[in-house]
Amino acid sequence: MKTVLVTGVAHGIGKAIAEKLSQQYRVLALDKEIPTHHFFEQFYTCDLSNAEALYKTISIIQKEHKTLYGLINNAGIFIHKPLNEQSLQDWEKVIAVNLTAPYILSQAFAPCLEHGHIINIASTRAYMSESGTEPYSASKGGIIALTHALSISLSGKVSVNSISPGWINTDESYVATVEEKAWHSSGRVGKPSDIAEVVAFLLEREDGFITGSDFVVDGGVTKKMVYP
Fold it and tell me: Which pLDDT tens digit goes with each residue over 133-154?
């Protein structure tokens, strides 16, 4: 059974990815928060905003697992504040978790991912924004750029792709309104399983031809023409 490492598994998209992949792969889970589910074989606690702690955790994983088939960089944090209220600390923390940690993990595990996959979870906010989301939008734009850069550096060895979710309803108690559903060409908002299925699809590709791409999974919203 092939081994994959998934970050940010405690809730939402990460939980769905772990659940989906645990049916076919040996899942190693990495998160700051201990999950209440058990869709993994081994769990590692780490604050991804702390580079020193991350390097230590990577060292432990490398000693226990000599090879990986997949690295899914899913962990991310979101800050929504007016621009004039954003602090440098806000910026640095979001960039650390959402962009620096995937870079560190990809660099560290690339040598043991021969003919494997790196899959980065980006966001449609890399392409479109609302006010007050500068750190998050910048981090997700960076993830897409990091993805295609890694795909060139690891050409012929590791397939590297990203997925940009749109509105994914991670709150199981929330019911989308009729208007919210109608805004989507799909007629509904997204589910965490929608993203997990794309991750599984990419992992099944073993010939390396799909690489350097970003897959937008947003129910068609970013293709919808909007007039004032």
Answer: 999 999 999 999 999 999 999 9
| pTM (2 d.p.) | 0.96
**Which one-letter amino acid corresponds to residue 201?**
F
Positions annotated as catalytic residues are: 136
**Cβ atoms of 197 and 13 closer than 8 Å:** no
The pLDDT tens digits for 68-77 are 999 999 999 9
Token pair for residue 74? Answer: 């899913």
User: Would you state the structure tokens that stand for residue 89, as one six-digit string?
Assistant: 């600390």
- Exposed, middle or buried by CB within 10 Å (0-12, 13-18, 19+), for 148? middle
- Domains of the chain from N-terminus onward: 3-223 (3.40.50.720)
Indicate the angle between helix axes 88-95 and 134-153, nearest 10 degrees.
30
